[in-house]
């Protein structure tokens, strides 16, 4: 059995990890070999998966907005939440894809998912890659890291509440702050630094984008602002029913909550700000591989292999399962690779809650 003892009933619930400076050279060599073999993105898989998820998700959203039966409406809303969450998760792939690896995908994804779901790609591009920076991971300069295992339980509640309210925050950003910021350089600076990144670290301040990203940012921010202002205007005019608008916000909020739960178990969140080796970053991250099937829903588009992703950030999502199978076969039982594999969402959430309670008592 190759699952970590963290999820197999170990009394401590926390196996000892090697020093943060330790590098497992055998693991890194095996990963590098896979990177050469599996790094080519397959456009047919990207297009089919994303378009199919979006189409079914919007169909479910339509059912939730219009069904006379409460049961049917709830079923539609749940389907929409999970499918649109999957479609939106391609923002992660976009942040890693090489230019022209999947021609046209960036534009089409923004049009059918990024803008309607109020998370245009510029909010992740140039941000998420900082999380993979060798010297930034787990430090105060990492936009996607908080030492949650060392924080009190109340922090987890605030963390989840922020996700639930995120769609309202996005609507305010795109419909109110962006237009106003065109009139105020000071406000514009604040919007760009503080409110233009899908980040969880409240201390993170987004650096200025390069010329290429600045052009893309301006385009998609403008489109997202027009979408949000237009949506509010249509609701105010009675063209879009209030019920439909509230269902839309509720579905987006549900998707954000699922993603935030996934984020809770994406890492062990134990680093206290020190620089970490690649191996240490891998061991601080989490895979939830088969035989479980539920991760397909709450960690879609390869996110169930989050630890492998930190070893091989350039690997396309459809190759991560094969990379896992090869690494399991190549690395002996008890070596570093096996220690980042866990059984279930529930066990990881409970582990984090226990750690937070201990932090509170300390």
How would you sum up this structure, described in words?
This protein is an all-alpha fold and 362 residues long. The chain is 58% helix and 0% strand. It has one domain. It is globular, with a radius of gyration of 21 Å. The two termini are 35 Å apart.
Task: Summarize the structure in short.
By secondary structure, the chain is mostly helical.
Please give a handful of descriptors for the protein shown.
58% helix
The helix content is 55-70%
As a percent range, the share of strand residues is under 5%
Number of strands: 0
Outline the biggest β-sheet: none
Q: Looking at the structure, what is the overall shape?
A: globular
From the helix content, strand content and strand pairing, which structural class follows? mainly alpha
Specify Rg, calculated over alpha carbons.
21 Å
Oligomer: single chain
Number of domains: 1
Mean pLDDT: 92
- In DSSP terms, counting alpha (H) and pi (I) runs of 4 or more, how many helices? 15
Poorly predicted residue ranges: 5-14
Instruction: State the separation between the terminal residues, measured CA to CA.
Output: 35 Å
Question: Could you give the order of the helices and strands?
Answer: HHHHHHHHHHHHHHH
